[in-house]
Design brief:
about 750 residues, alpha/beta
Length: about 750
């Protein structure tokens, strides 16, 4: 009898599940069910191969994917799944580092510095070195540090290499290596790691300490890596080291979806896997279960233009579906309006939900026009990739208090909370405390224990009250759970009181955010999977959360996001907007063939998010730097293939054709669509040379209106028209599809 986890799998999927010994690469096309395969493979290892849960290491790229996998595996094998080493690269390696941190000179409850913490530290360093912050910008410095770490270049190696010194001089940052050295030193002294350190320090642990390396090589009999095309040099090096003993490494990915080179991801990892493991087994998952044949064929045609790829032919047994549509508009403002109009008609005509629709764009700045258009139509929407809940100031303030309770040497947490709420402790006093700690190489907490040696009595008294507050909370660590300590700290610090007394709308929202944080900590304590409700465990749990991990995907709203953020998601209807040269492909990605191929892979990812219908849109003019500029259609539009029956939809025909592919009677729109004034037949264009103020006109979408004003601007004739149902609109007469109605 076939195991339950194998039911519903095709033959190639079953092969990927059951081939467990030795190195293997599963090339999984978009929508081919790779998550289902990974889950079944782990279940097979546990049930049939009798592997212990802690002998399996499974690495993903998002917490959401890891949580889904663990939940589904638990449903198959029971609670034993909790002992799996399953999670994101960063979260799993953080777990490993917590165990072995002392070997590297870090405390077991080291802090995790996010981007804001790292930038703040860099600001302090450049200030101490008296460097121009207009040249030594924190974001640029952090990016260069991250780039070096991802290439496994230590600060010491960097500082000793004349090639890097020349590069820094060319960039007008000759003292960058000094900042890099100080940054690494400050992090170590503060008992803190940034996101890159979680990988770099794991690499150091495995490559510099043979006994520890052997320990984990022996432990992990099976290693699985999802989205392998997104791994960087450090991640792949760690994986190879961990798999060196048993050689049971299975990587799953799609080279056609490698889109994170800007984060250090190296497509060569998946392309070269076959050379690194010559005795590998390659399994191709080529059946797409997600999209229509039109969409799958279009995606295949697009990616065929790339040379650097593992050849595969994705296919689907799904229906042909609606043809790919290309929406061409005169301006970016018109593009947003027409896309939103089309969403509204599709929803009403086909009984859809708003959450069935997604608008994807190349850059975040493109969202503004679509937000405005959606708001005008009262259509609910949410943006993925906006400010994360855990990045809000008030939330970070309370978390900084909790971080400092767990790690008394966390300098950035100390700077954030020492005088918030206000305690009369000025920046001079704060800088003095931190400087003494850095210059004397003494732990910050040790310095705080000897305040009378270097501060005035008034300043020492104020700081001592803060130290006593932290001391009291620290005593609770051994006996109290995360919620009890957090609730105490929110009240005792004065943070809750400060926010509660702010009766502005913003103040009330900030207060609610703190309450929401406390609620989430209570939920963690009550339902913690690892039976560890401690504060340290909670901080570890949320240290690597992203905005996407907190998104409410169940609300009925149109989703707006960048294409990068859309990876791994799917929607019934997808609108890929801004298909213009220098926007997509980006002007920054036209310098090399490799960059252009990455942009094309990004296009492939966007296309394959669609299940039922895909619409591509572009404008002929777009505002850039406050000026309306003519733009060219994207070169990618020529690569979608004639077989897709792509249609160009203009303003005059958009709503007349929107619902046709799905309607049983294509010559009629549903009654819902008629209610919003949509005509199923495009009207002929009237010669508008005789148009005058006071004339009554008919517009295909806006209906009947009266001309209020005629304007000549930049060689173009415009009409201000008051429409009976839609109010006042300004239209370009060169492109407006208007009929002059006879006077009565």
């Amino acid at each position: 009898m076939e195991s339950i986890y194998l039911s519903g799998l095709n033959e190639m999927q079953k092969k990927a599940v059951m081939h467990t010994e030795g190195p293997s690469i599963v090339v999984a096309g978009a929508g081919s069910g790779k998550t289902k395969v990974l889950i079944a493979r782990i279940a097979h290892l546990l049930k049939e191969k009798k592997a212990a849960p802690d002998q399996i290491l499974a690495l993903t790229f998002t917490n959401k994917a890891a949580d889904e996998m663990r939940h589904r595996i638990t449903g198959i094998v029971g609670n034993g799944a909790k002992a799996l080493w399953l999670g994101t690269f960063h979260s799993v390696f953080m777990k490993l580092l917590r165990r072995e941190a002392n070997t590297l000179g870090y405390p077991s409850h080291f802090s995790i510095y996010d981007t804001d913490d790292s930038k703040s530290l860099i600001k302090q360093i450049t200030k101490a070195l008296d460097l121009d912050d207009k040249i030594y910008k924190p974001g640029v410095i952090l990016g260069r540090i991250s780039h070096a770490k991802n290439r496994l270049i230590t600060p010491e190696v960097y500082a000793a290499d004349p090639t890097y010194q020349k590069e820094d001089a060319y960039m007008r940052m000759p003292r960058f290596s000094e900042i890099f050295l100080r940054y690494a030193g400050h992090c170590l002294q503060a008992g803190a790691m940034d996101f890159d350190d979680l990988l770099v320090q794991t690499h150091k642990l495995l490559y510099d300490y043979p006994a520890l390396s052997a320990k984990y090589q022996q432990q992990f009999h099976y290693l699985l890596i999802d989205e392998f095309q997104d791994t960087n040099l450090v991640q792949y090096s760690i994986a190879k080291k961990l798999a060196a003993h048993h050689q049971n490494i299975c990587v799953v990915g799609d080279d056609a979806q490698s889109i994170y080179a800007f984060r250090g991801a190296d497509i060569h990892n998946i392309l070269h896997f076959v050379h690194d493991y010559p005795n590998h087994q390659m399994i191709k998952l080529e059946q797409n279960y997600r999209s229509t044949r039109h969409i799958v064929n279009t995606a295949n045609h697009i990616i065929s233009h790339n040379e650097a790829q593992l050849k595969k032919k994705v296919w689907t047994a799904n229906p042909l579906g609606a043809p790919i549509q290309v929406l061409r508009t005169m301006s970016d403002m018109e593009e947003s309006r027409l896309v939103v109009d089309q969403i509204l008609v599709e929803k009403l005509s086909n009984q859809l939900l708003y959450r069935d629709f997604a608008i994807l764009y190349r850059t975040n700045k493109q969202s503004r026009n679509f937000e405005e258009a959606l708001r005008k139509k009262n259509i609910p929407y949410h943006i993925i990739g906006g400010l994360s809940f855990y990045q809000r100031k008030e939330v970070k303030d309370l978390l900084a208090y909790l971080r400092f309770v767990v790690n008394h040497n966390d300098t950035e947490a100390f700077r954030r909370i020492i005088n918030f709420p206000r305690r009369g402790i000025g920046p001079t006093t704060i800088d003095k405390i931190v400087s003494i700690s850095a210059e004397s190489v003494l732990p910050l907490w040790t310095v705080l224990g000897h305040l009378n040696d270097f501060l005035s009595s008034t300043a020492a008294t104020a700081v001592s009250r803060f130290v006593a507050l932290i001391d009291t909370a620290t005593l609770k660590l051994e006996s109290e759970n995360a919620y009890t300590i957090a609730d105490y700290m929110a009240k005792a610090s004065g943070l809750l009181k400060e926010l509660h007394e702010d009766k502005t709308v913003e103040g009330l929202i900030r207060y609610e955010h703190i309450q929401e944080l406390l609620n989430s900590i209570k939920h963690f304590v009550d339902y913690s999977d690892n039976n560890d409700p401690s504060l340290g465990s909670f901080l570890q749990e949320i240290a690597l959360l992203t905005s996407a991990d907190k998104e409410n995907v169940h609300e009925d709203a149109v989703t707006l996001m960048t294409i990068h953020a859309s990876k791994g998601l799917e929607f019934k209807y997808v609108y890929l907007v801004g298909m213009e040269e220098e926007l997509f492909p980006s002007s920054m990605m036209l310098g090399s063939k490799a960059d252009l191929e990455e942009e094309r892979r990004l296009f492939y990812v966007a296309v394959t998010r669609a299940q039922l219908k895909l619409t591509l849109s572009h404008a002929l003019s777009r505002y850039r730097f406050g000026k309306l500029t003519n733009v060219q259609p994207s070169r990618f539009l020529k690569e979608i293939g004639d077989h897709t029956e792509a249609k160009t939809i203009t303003k005059s025909s958009l709503l007349a054709t929107t619902a046709k592919p799905i309607q049983k009677h294509p010559t009629k729109l549903s009654s819902s669509a008629r209610k919003i004034g949509v005509s199923s037949v495009a009207q002929p264009t009237t010669n508008l040379a005789s148009l005058q103020v006071g004339h009554s006109v008919h517009h295909l979408y806006f209906g009947v209106g009266q001309v209020l004003k005629l304007v000549e601007s930049a060689g173009m004739r415009k009409a201000v028209i008051l429409f009976h149902k839609f109010g006042e609109k300004t239209l370009l007469l060169n492109y407006a599809k208007l009929d002059i109605l006879p006077s009565t």
